[in-house]
Amino acid sequence: xxxxxxxxxxxGDPYDTGSLMPLKPEGETLTFGRSSHTNETDVSFISPYxxxxxxEIYLEDGITFIRDLDSKHGTALNNNLLEPxxxxxxxxxxxxxxxxxxxxxxxxxxxxxxxxxxxxxxxxIEPTGTQxxxxxxxxxxxxxxxxxxxxxxxxxxxxxxxxxxxxKKNQAVSSxxxxxxxxxxxxxxxxxxxxxxxxxxxxxxVYRLRKKLxxxxxxxxxxPRYGYMLQIG
Length: 233
Known about the structure:
Helix content: 10-25%
Strand content: 25-35%
Number of helices: 4
Radius of gyration: 18 Å
CATH topology of the largest domain: Tumour Suppressor Smad4
Mean pLDDT: 81
CATH architecture of the largest domain: Sandwich
Strand order of the largest sheet: 2-1-11-10-7-8
Low-confidence stretches: 113-134
Number of domains: 2
Distance between the termini: 44 Å
């Protein structure tokens, strides 16, 4: 069972997007945190927003659980903030966010994924997910994107932006909205001010996302002196 369970890193330096980390056997934990000379975790990130001992994932009676280790900036499961030190069960495809999206992970049970694919093929019900335009598909709840049936692995910020624009499809989204939703880690605690993100940083992120989407990059429209829009015909 364990050999079919993985954590896929979607974003988090110094790891490459798509890196897979197998879960440990029952009785052992897979720990996540910030690397330092005095602290060692199984999966170590370099961001200062990640706590030294941030979260752990483990198997118990064949069920996978995640637990936030009282981290400073929190752990979220499918955008729901976890209570510190309270285990939460994981399901295949769940998205894990450390420190408000600085690190993004996906829990994968490959046996479950194979079963889901078989059921989807034989079922008369439409597959889960929404078509953005011909050849480009997204499952926002799982942050999964594919082009012409081939999975597209994007970094956390690129996925954040595409999913956010998708949820506001055919609506102009202001630069300030983008700053708030894509860079929440730059918000000052207790302040309602817009994060300190320059428009050039937004433009660069949009430019890179368009390039990664290839022929479908043109669906992201610039709204002059305002922001951007995902245009779906």
